[in-house]
Amino acid sequence: MKTNIKISGILSAVVLFCLFAFKPFEEKKIIVIDAGHGGHDFGADMHGFQEKNISEAIAKKIKAFNKDSNLEIVLLRDGDHFMGLSERVSIINNHNPDLVISLHVNASKNVQVNGVDAYISSKTEFYEKSKESAEKIVNEVSGDNLLKRRISEAPFYVLKNSNCAAITLLMGFLSNNKDREYLTSETGQNEIATKILEAVK
């Protein structure tokens, strides 16, 4: 009887070892964060704030907040320098990511216009995945502080030429007082970064 129990215990240990030893390897998800503009290219420049700095600050927070070992955040622009569109796409495609998110902020002559928009390309094989990712991110980022606007199609260079799902995320309007206060605050930037990170997990 004791022998049978001992053998049973050994077999159980072997089975458990096999289950863990041969567990399928979970491939790391790679997300490229493309902070828009940079260097002499300020982007939207209003009320003492520049789009390039806002997009870079939020991009860095996304990377810093990531604690998931199965998720790799790659910053396309890690610093205030100009990058051409073809250079951006070349780096993106070299990383072979699951998704690229180009971070931008909006501006309008109508100061009442506010909220979050996203753009995707209609001319790539990644259209459905791009649309799904855009919907998830816009839904996550919008809320009490940022109005949910729309997801549209656009022939932007990075969207068309990236060999992966790609979205351009416009995180609010620098021209709108409420959006601007949120976008330029530490709290607002932390919340946006956290929500983007949550949406891509």
Characterise the protein shown here:
It is built from 7 helices and 8 strands, in the order αβββαβαββαβαβαα. The protein has 201 residues and is of the alpha/beta class. It has a 6-stranded mixed sheet with strand order 4-1-5-8-6-7, with helices on both faces. β2 (45-46) and β3 (49-50) form a beta hairpin. The protein starts with a helix and ends with a helix. The model has no long low-confidence stretch (mean pLDDT 91).
Keywords:
alpha/beta; 7 helices; 201 residues; single chain; two-stranded antiparallel ribbon; six-stranded mixed beta sheet; 8 strands; 22% strand
Q: Would you report the number of β strands?
A: 8
Side by side, the strands of the main sheet go 4-1-5-8-6-7
Radius of gyration: 22 Å
> Strand pairing plus helix content: what structural class?
alpha/beta
* End-to-end distance: 50 Å
Q: Which range best describes the helical content: under 10%, 10-25%, 25-40%, 40-55%, 55-70% or over 70%?
A: 40-55%
Q: What percent strand?
A: 15-25%
Main sheet: strands, sense, barrel: 6 strands, mixed
- Look at the structure and give the mean pLDDT: 91
Task: Pick out the low-confidence regions.
Answer: none
Q: Write down the overall geometry.
A: globular
Annotation field: number of helices: 7
Secondary-structure element pattern, one letter each: HEEEHEHEEHEHEHH
Oligomer kind? single chain
